[in-house]
Each structure stands twice: as C-alpha cells, then as structure tokens.
Design brief:
alpha+beta, 14 helices, Adenine-n6-DNA-methyltransferase TaqI, Chain A, domain 2, five-stranded mixed beta sheet, single chain
C-alpha cells in the first residue's frame, strides 16, 4: 500500500467510507484544483474484437483445466485449451470486457482470455491511466448503458461499439486513480465478505424454513383426509401468451416463466399485462386460484405454484394450469406444492428429458391433505412469517444484503465523481 493511503488501512464499508471520501476530495483539490479532464474511453487504449464462436462450440471445448477463459454475454464464461482458439484472437489481460448484450455490464480480467465477437474489450496500455480505475468508473455507468441498450432494441438489449467508445471517463492524476483503486479494492473485498456471511445465514434460514414447512404438513398426513386434487378442484390448462404479446397496461397476466424466477408462493399483482382483446383468448385466473407450471427444464421447478390473491381476475397462458373452484385456502395449497411429499408424488408423473412435463390429468391424481379451513389458516400464518423472513426483499436478510449492495454502489459512485475541468466537455451518463 502506498504511503498516501496507509491511513486507510483500517477503512471499512461502515466506518471508513467518510474517511476515504474526505481523503480523495482533499487529494483532488490539491492535485487538480482546476477540475478533472474527461476523455473518451476509445481514446484511452485499444479496443479488442474477440473471436467468432457459437454457444455450441463453447460447450464442446469447455475444459475445467484450460488455460484460457472465454467470455460470453451475461455471466456466461468457460475455460478452454489455448489450441481451441485461433492464436490471433487470444488476448492478454489486464483488460476490461464489455458485456454488451442482454444484461449490460463490465468485467475486469487479468489473465489469458478472449470473448465472443459480439462483445468487445479494452486494453489500456497508457502510462497515465490505471486500468482498474477505469473499470470501477465504468461500473457507475452500467445503469445508464442498460437503459440505452434497451432503447435501441425491442427484443434483446444491445449496445453499439460507439456507445462505449464515446463514454467520457474522468482522468485525475495517476496518484488519485491509484488511491481510489486501493480503497475500492478494499471495500469490494469487505462487501463480498459481508454478503457471503449474510448469504450463508440466509441459506441456513431457508433450510430451517423448509424443515418446518415439511414438518407441519407431515404431521397432517396421518390425521386428516387426503384427497386427489382433481376430486375437489377443477384444473384448466392454459394456452398461448408469448412475451411478445405483453403490453404496458391492460389485463394482468401471469407467465409461467415468471413463476420460476419472479413470483413467491402468492401474489396480489402481476408482472405482465396483455390487451383486453387478447385476454379473452387466454385462460382466466380468479382470485383464490392457483397457477401451476406444467413444464420446466428441471424436475424441481415443474409444478411450482403461485396463489393469485389479487382482487381482480387475471389470465395465464401456455405451460401452466389453473387450479380453480377448490374452496380451500389458496396459500395453504401453494405452500403444500413446495413440500418434499408433493415433490416426491409429482416425480411419479413427470416425463421428458430436456423438457420436463406433468400433464394436468396426472397432476389431478396427486393427493392433498385437507384439514379444516381454520387449521389451514393457522398453518399459512406460520409459514407467511417464515417466508417473509427469508424471501421478502423488503424485510429480513434479503433486504440487508440488498442494502449492503446499494451502500457499496453509493460510496463507489461518490468516490468517482469529480469536478470538471473548465475546458473539458460536459460528462453525461
């Protein structure tokens, strides 16, 4: 650690940030009293084009012992042997990789690498620029670039090369850049450690929750009637409803794909909408109904259920079944659909390899323990408390994890905000 930042040795995300901010502000005021010049990213170094490779080829050459890393969009990357990639396309870090499709972002990599040709990267061999400093600055631009990419493409968000080439990057003296990198490296490590600790606690809470949920239902099995789902409910399979038919406002719609990733055990609002005209062609979901996924790429997600507890009718489409006219507590049923016993029963009817399916007629054969409604309500109240603790982003540990991330991003952005030199172009992002 340099002498100038030695006093930041004890900095932490909570206590050390004001100290770090004050230090950087004083250093900037001392070294660049007239402000900081902003320079286009494309002028700071070389832009690399990567290699032409398909997703299928990446799967084929994937090798855990490989010495070269190949990056694709999002968080997708593999390691492979160098002789599986054209020599001319192999790059040497440190470099900044631009994730230009889908979820827009950046990755700093110091090893031997390449990336798919629709991505690009920057290698900044400039003695006046700390490359990792530029990477940290680019992270502050991610939200702006995501919106820009979304505005350019109706389907998959996509950046153009000029979008990053033209980004204006503040270039304070190298001493300032180095100090910021040291601070953010430390904060990044601390934030990762805190997140890992919270994630471990969250995983333990979830395991505890699942244990008690299974126990609650197991205690019912031998005490209450067990009735086939189709004997006390009507099952209506959905059809149609591609995402391309979604609109900004209209009739609420529950898409089967969102049940896997976005919905919890119940919902009182939808994440998507369709037009009133199109809604008439789809399967109706009444308040109190369950929407169950029929299809998934894995056995765990098939037959995942969400109870619709909103005030109005909504709709659903293909790969889902509506469980209606059941006259039970909908959340009680939804919770039961996640138990070990239900998952064991559904596996008897699941078929397929790449795509797993459970037909509505077979789902109807699964027996459900049905205690009186008062007992169902008691169980739901208990499980709601557990669910809020571990899954609700507005409370419990997930909220704390999210708060840590936002805190880190806030301080990072503060550290990377500078007064403009009078002769520099206004920075926009």
């Amino acid at each position: 650690m340099s002498e100038n930042t030695q006093n930041l040795q004890d900095a932490s995300v909570d206590a050390g940030v004001p100290k770090a901010l004050n230090y950087i502000e004083k250093l900037v005021a001392e070294l660049c009293p007239e402000g900081v010049e902003y320079v286009e990213l494309g002028r700071l170094g070389k832009r690399n084009s990567g290699t032409s490779i398909t997703a299928a080829k990446m799967k084929q050459i994937k090798n855990p012992g490989g010495e070269i890393r190949i990056f694709a969009a999002g968080n997708n990357n593999i390691t492979a042997k160098s002789n599986d990639v054209p020599e001319k396309d192999i790059l040497l870090g440190p470099s900044i990789i631009v994730k230009s499709r889908g979820h827009i972002g950046f990755e700093y990599y110091e090893g031997k690498f390449t990336h798919k040709s629709e991505l690009w990267s920057y290698t900044l061999n400039n003695g006046e620029v700390n490359q990792k400093y530029v990477y940290y600055f680019l992270l502050t631009c991610s939200q702006y670039l995501q919106k820009l990419a979304r505005s350019k493409s109706v389907k998959l968000p996509q950046l153009a090369v000029r979008d990053t080439d033209n980004l204006l990057v503040p270039i304070p003296p190298l001493e300032v850049q180095n100090a910021i990198v040291e601070i953010l490296d430390k904060f990044t490590k601390l934030e990762a450690e805190l997140e890992a600790e919270l994630e471990a606690e969250l995983a333990a809470r979830r395991a505890q929750y699942e244990y008690y949920r299974n126990l609650l239902y197991e205690n019912l099995i031998d005490q209450v009637p067990k009735v086939e789902l189709g004997k006390f409910a009507t099952l209506n399979r959905g059809h149609g409803m591609p995402k391309s038919d979604f609109v900004e406002t209209g009739v609420g719609a529950i898409h089967y794909g969102q049940i896997y990733t976005k919905y919890g055990f119940s919902a009182n609002s939808t994440l998507a909408y369709v037009s009133e005209e199109f809604a008439r062609k789809l399967t109706k979901v009444n308040p109190g109904d369950l929407v169950v996924t029929n299809t998934s790429e894995n056995i765990n997600d098939v037959c995942k259920a969400v109870a619709w507890i909103g005030d109005e009718d909504v709709v659903t489409g293909g790969h889902s079944t509506v469980v209606t006219q059941h006259f039970q507590n909908p959340k009680y049923l939804s919770y039961y659909f996640s138990t070990d016993k239900f998952n064991s029963d559904k596996k008897k009817y699941a078929f397929g390899t790449k795509v797993i399916d459970v037909l509505p007629k077979n789902l109807a054969k699964i027996k459900i323990p049905l205690p009186p409604l008062a007992e169902q309500e008691r169980i739901v109240k208990i499980l709601d408390k557990f669910d809020a603790l571990v899954n609700d982003i507005n409370s419990g540990l997930p909220a704390e994890i999210e708060a840590r991330r936002k805190q880190y991003e806030y301080y990072r952005d503060r550290l990377l905000t500078f007064p403009h030199a009078s002769d520099s172009t206004e920075h926009k992002h």
